[in-house]
Every structure is written in structure tokens, then in C-alpha cells.
């Protein structure tokens, strides 16, 4: 088609992204599936041109780098060396490459179009591309369920980071680009950058300079400096986030950058659809290989369950990772440039990734319901009890349970503790947060409140009230669903909301009282101000 005016090009892809994202949301799928469909529609109708592609491609790259930076803000290096992360990721990738390359080699003897006479080195490259799970998809689905900081969420993210490291090594070797000699000073450079960035973040107020700092850390301190050293810019973005993981304002920085990340990732999914126009051959190839996500998931489930993890943790981690990755496309592009695979295979990989998202999205959306339905079977995977992710066996006779110990939950917990002492218990699935609070003498415990087996096992008879302070609606609804397994419950459930429609949903799902945050905020502010004024006049 004729070249679009740049303004019209942006209007086109944003309109299609919004429309298809809205449709996907309305039918119960994540919006990212709609963005993918929109990209393929643009491609199928030949609505794209140089202006459209030049607008979307850079934004897609920005989205991926911001994603890696925000992951780094939540990732502590020591967590990568846990055996359930390092060994599971390494073994899974090795076994996947061996099994899938062998399968592709066997299919090369068939008359199927793309498989016929497929060279062995091509089979290995394709198998390697399919061994990755999607960082973008997993992060988005975990965030949608409010489980980014959960045990299984951190487990999945850790495995993805190990996979990304393998991808970076592959890209570095395939580029045949020798890093600068300055790379020998990388530890010193990182130490200087960590001190500099921390100091700069300390100096900032809470306005627009915070996201500007985030972009500076991602693209200048991270991506640009690493490219000067002959290293992958993406790796620089990830490491800059990791350098700031212990900064007191890391959560504020993460929240501000997450909004930008979500927008730029829309362009990433649209861009996937522009890789190539699907044909009957590429579509049939993708459909033939699609069942391999079952193999990936089962293999992850088997490996994770061998490392003293609770069956539910292994199940949720494996389900999150049961998809194909955008890094597979990057590997495919390298393979195409090196002459190892054809353009048809690159299109097939893009289709396969997209189809895996379509299949995985509803499975992840209803992951807790699926577990509740099949829990008797899943719990047979292993019967190890003494594990780091084991749920508490009792609440110690607590009368008041605060679920979620974040910016709202922690003050709520401390307020209740001042009044009722040891009768108050805090529960959170962020193990690092629990360790910190325990070190300060707080009566808290680790546990996943969305897990129905927790409520099956624990004695909740002493509970008078449960306070849901988690900000994510999906998480709270999963908790309410899990609470249905409590027999003869005598406690009340209290929650807070930000919007009227959320209040109605909570009341329909068994919440006894909903605190409308925005409605009560002004009222409480005035009451406390007047109370303080009266005291000051005495």
C-alpha cells in the first residue's frame, strides 16, 4: 500500500490495538492476545508500510527493555542461584533442545513442507528457539493475577532470567562480536553506576523526574553503556534494575515505570504480527508443533517437583512457563541472518508463539480454579512437607488476620497489633517481606492466601475477622474463592476498594464490609484534622 502519513500510522495501530484488546478482555482473554490478533490483521489486510513499521519497531524494543528493567527492580541476584531455579532452567532447556531437535530430525524424513529435508543444525536452532518461555507473557499474567511477588511468581521469573542469560550468550556468540577491553572493568563500572544511580534517586522528589530517571537508568546507564562495551543493550537494562533492587524507593520507581512499560509492550505484540504473512504451510507447521507446550509444561512440573517444592507451587510455576517466547523469535532472526533457517520458519515461530499465548492465557486466568478442581491429583506429585514454600499448619489462635502487608496492610496490621497484641497475625506470600517483619518482632507468617489447601489444613475457628488489604482485585477474588473451603466459618471478611464497581463485586463474593477508599479518605482526613485541632487547643 501507499505510505501512510506518520500521524495516520500511529492512529491506525493504536485504534486496532484498543479495539482488539477490548474484545479480548470482554471474552475473558488477556488484552495481549487481542494485540497479537490486531497485528496479524494489519499484516493480513496489508495495512502496514514503512512509516507504520518504523513507528512500531522502536517502541517494541523500548517495551522489552523497560520490561527487563522493571524485572531487575524486583530481582535479587542470590535468588538465581537457588537449585530449583538454576538447575530447573538449565536442565529444562537442555532436555527440550535434545528432545525437540530429535523430533524435528525425524519429521525431516516426512513429506511435510517445512519439515522436509530439514538440516540437523536447523533442527537444533529451532529447538533452542522453542525452549524459551515468554518473559512478556509470564510477567503480564502474573501481574494480572497480582502474583508477581508470590513464591511461584518469583520462581517463574528466576527461571526466565536464566533462560534470558542463555539467550544473551547465544546472541553474543552468533554476533561474533568481540566485546571491548573495557568490559574487564565491568565490576568497577557497575559499582560506580550503582552508587551514582542510588544517589540520583535519593535527590529526586516524587514528581515527573522519577520516570525520567527510570528512562535514564534503562537506556543511558544500562542499554547505551553496555552497547559501548560490546555487550547486549537488553542485558544492561536488566542489570541497571538489579543494581537498584535494595534502594528504599524501588517500589515507587517500579510503580511509575510499570505504566510506561505496559504501553510500549502493546507495540511489541502488534509488531509480532508484522513479522510475516501466515500461509497454509506456516500455519499447519505451527499447529503441528503447538502440542509441544504440553511437553514443556509437564517437563517443568516434573523438574520443579524434584526440588522439594510443594505440588501447588510446581504446578503454578510450570503452568506460567508453558508457552513459547519472543526470545525464540530473536533466536529465529539470528538463525535467518546466519542462513540456518528460512523466512517461512520465522513466520511459523511467530505463529506458534501467538497460538501458545491464546492457549495459555485462559489456562493461566483460571489456574486457581483448575487447581481446586484437580487438587487431589496434583497433590500426589510429591508428599514432602518440610519445604520453604510449605503453608502454615495453624494461625496460633489468632483472632484477627491481616492478608497482605504492603503500604496499606502493614499500617493496618500495626494498628490492630497495638490494640489486640498477639491476637493479630499478618499473612503475606512475599517471603522477603515476611523475613524482614519477623526480624523486627512482628507476629507474621508466610503463606499463599489464594491456596485452598491452606484453608483446608488450618484451624480457622478462632478467627473473628479477616482483613483483605491486597490492592489487586483478581488476587482478592481468588482469596475469597479459596475461603469457600472453610467449614462452618464464623469470621467476617473486610476489604477495601478504589472504585464502586469493585465494591459490588466484593459484596457479591462474600465480603461483609467494603471500605470505599476514595469516599472515606476525605471524610477521615477532615475528622483527624479536626480532632488534632481540638487537642492542640486544650
Task: Give an overview of the whole structure.
This protein has 24 helices and 6 strands. By secondary structure, the chain is mainly alpha-helical. It folds into 2 domains: 61-378, Na+/H+ antiporter like fold (Up-down Bundle), CATH 1.20.1530; 400-537, Rossmann fold (3-Layer(aba) Sandwich). It has a 6-stranded parallel sheet with strand order 3-2-1-4-5-6, with helices on both faces. α23 (500-508) links the parallel β5 (492-497) and β6 (513-516). α8 (151-175) crosses α15 (311-320). The termini are far apart.
Features:
538 residues; 2 domains; 5% strand; single chain; six-stranded parallel β-sheet; 66% helix; Na+/H+ antiporter like fold; mainly alpha; Rossmann fold
Summarize the structure.
Helices cover 66% and strands 5% of the residues. By secondary structure, it is mainly alpha-helical.
Helix content: 55-70%
Individual helix count = 24
Q: Report the structural category.
A: mainly alpha
How does CATH name the architecture of the largest domain? Up-down Bundle
C-alpha end-to-end distance: 78 Å
Order of helices and strands: HHHHHHHHHHHHHHHHHHEHEHEHEHEHEH
Tell the overall outline. globular
Query: Which CATH class of the largest domain?
Result: Mainly Alpha
Main sheet summary:
6 strands, parallel
Number of strands: 6
Look at the structure and give the mean pLDDT: 85
CATH topology of the largest domain: Na+/H+ antiporter like fold
Proportion of residues in extended strands: under 5%
Amino acid at each position: 500500500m501507499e505510505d501512510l502519513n506518520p500521524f495516520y500510522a500511529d492512529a491506525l495501530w493504536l485504534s486496532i490495538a484498543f479495539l482488539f484488546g477490548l474484545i479480548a478482555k470482554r471474552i475473558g482473554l488477556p488484552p495481549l492476545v487481542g494485540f497479537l490478533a490486531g497485528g496479524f490483521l494489519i499484516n493480513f489486510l496489508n495495512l502496514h508500510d514503512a512509516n507504520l513499521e518504523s513507528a512500531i519497531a522502536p517502541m517494541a524494543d523500548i517495551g522489552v527493555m523497560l520490561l527487563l528493567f522493571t524485572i531487575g527492580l524486583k530481582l535479587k541476584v542470590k535468588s538465581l542461584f537457588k537449585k530449583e531455579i538454576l538447575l530447573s532452567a538449565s536442565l529444562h532447556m537442555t532436555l527440550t533442545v535434545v528432545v525437540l531437535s530429535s523430533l524435528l530430525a525425524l519429521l525431516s524424513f516426512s513429506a511435510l513442507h517445512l519439515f522436509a529435508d530439514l538440516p540437523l543444525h536447523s533442527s537444533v536452532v529451532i529447538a533452542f528457539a522453542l525452549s524459551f518461555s515468554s518473559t512478556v507473557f509470564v510477567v503480564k499474567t502474573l501481574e494480572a493475577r497480582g502474583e508477581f511477588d508470590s513464591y511461584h511468581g518469583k520462581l517463574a521469573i528466576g527461571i526466565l532470567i536464566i533462560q534470558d542469560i542463555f539467550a544473551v550468550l547465544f546472541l553474543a556468540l552468533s554476533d561474533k562480536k568481540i566485546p571491548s577491553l573495557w568490559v574487564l572493568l565491568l565490576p568497577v563500572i557497575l559499582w560506580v553506576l550503582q552508587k551514582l544511580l542510588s544517589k540520583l534517586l535519593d535527590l529526586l522528589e516524587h514528581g515527573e523526574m522519577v520516570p525520567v530517571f527510570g528512562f535514564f537508568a534503562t537506556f543511558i546507564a544500562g542499554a547505551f553503556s553496555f552497547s559501548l562495551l560490546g555487550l547486549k543493550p537488553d542485558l544492561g537494562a536488566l542489570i541497571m534494575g538489579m543494581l537498584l533492587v535494595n534502594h528504599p524507593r524501588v517500589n515507587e520507581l517500579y510503580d511509575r515505570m510499570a505504566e510506561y512499560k505496559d504501553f510500549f509492550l502493546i507495540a511489541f505484540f502488534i509488531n509480532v504480527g508484522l513479522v510475516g504473512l501466515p500461509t497454509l504451510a506456516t500455519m499447519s507447521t505451527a499447529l503441528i508443533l503447538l502440542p509441544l507446550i504440553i511437553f514443556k509444561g509437564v517437563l517443568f512440573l516434573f523438574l520443579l517437583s524434584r526440588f522439594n517444592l510443594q505440588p501447588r507451587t510446581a504446578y503454578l510455576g510450570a503452568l506460567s512457563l508453558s508457552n513459547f517466547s519472543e526470545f525464540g523469535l530473536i533466536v529465529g532472526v539470528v538463525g535467518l541472518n546466519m542462513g540456518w533457517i528460512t523466512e517461512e520458519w520465522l513466520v511459523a515461530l511467530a505463529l506458534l508463539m501467538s497460538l501458545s499465548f491464546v492457549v495459555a492465557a485462559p489456562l493461566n486466568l483460571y489456574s486457581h480454579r483448575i487447581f481446586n478442581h484437580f487438587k487431589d491429583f496434583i497433590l500426589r506429585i510429591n508428599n514432602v512437607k518440610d519445604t520453604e514454600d510449605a503453608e502454615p499448619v495453624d494461625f496460633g489462635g489468632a483472632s484477627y488476620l491481616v492478608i497482605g502487608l504492603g503500604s496499606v496492610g502493614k499500617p493496618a496490621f500495626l494498628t490492630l497489633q497495638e490494640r489486640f497484641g498477639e491476637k493479630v497475625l499478618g499473612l503475606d506470600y512475599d517471603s522477603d517481606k515476611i523475613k524482614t517483619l519477623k526480624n523486627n518482632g512482628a507476629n507474621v507468617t508466610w503463606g499463599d492466601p489464594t491456596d485452598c489447601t491452606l484453608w483446608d489444613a488450618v484451624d480457622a475457628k478462632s478467627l473473628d475477622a479477616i482483613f483483605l488489604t491486597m490492592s489487586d482485585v483478581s488476587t482478592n477474588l481468588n482469596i475469597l474463592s479459596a475461603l469457600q473451603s472453610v467449614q462452618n466459618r464464623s469470621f467476617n471478611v473486610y476489604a477495601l476498594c478504589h472504585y464502586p464497581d469493585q465494591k459490588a463485586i466484593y459484596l457479591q463474593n462474600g465480603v461483609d464490609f467494603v471500605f470505599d477508599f476514595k469516599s472515606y479518605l476525605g471524610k477521615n482526613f477532615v475528622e483527624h484534622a479536626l480532632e488534632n485541632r481540638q487537642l492542640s487547643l486544650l
